[in-house]
Design goal:
Helix content: 55-70%
Number of helices: 3
Strand content: under 5%
Shape: extended
Radius of gyration: 18 Å
Number of strands: 0
Number of domains: 1
Length: 86
């Protein structure tokens, strides 16, 4: 997997997870979740990427996911032969 796609996947997972945690904390605790340490690029990921990603239809999300190289493209291993029960 290329470095760019690793970086993209790592950041998108992180910011989508943080946004989901904040949303759940607001919904069920009535307050925002724990504060995070702002870093470079937070503005892009939190204010642009997460809201746009959430509004994309599933088919478009799936097409983007399949177009990028990553762990989701690994093939499943076949089942090992089952042992006879004793």
């Amino acid at each position: 997997m290329s470095r760019f796609s690793e970086w993209l996947r790592r950041n998108s997972e992180r910011y989508l997870l943080e946004a989901a945690q904040e949303q759940l904390a607001r919904r069920y605790l009535g307050r925002p979740g724990p504060a995070h340490r702002p870093g470079p690029g937070d503005l892009f990921w939190r204010r642009l990427f997460v809201p746009v990603y959430r509004r994309l239809p599933w088919r478009l999300r799936q097409a983007v996911i399949l177009a990028l190289p990553g762990s989701h493209r690994r093939r499943w291993q076949g089942r090992s032969p089952s042992r006879p029960s004793v």
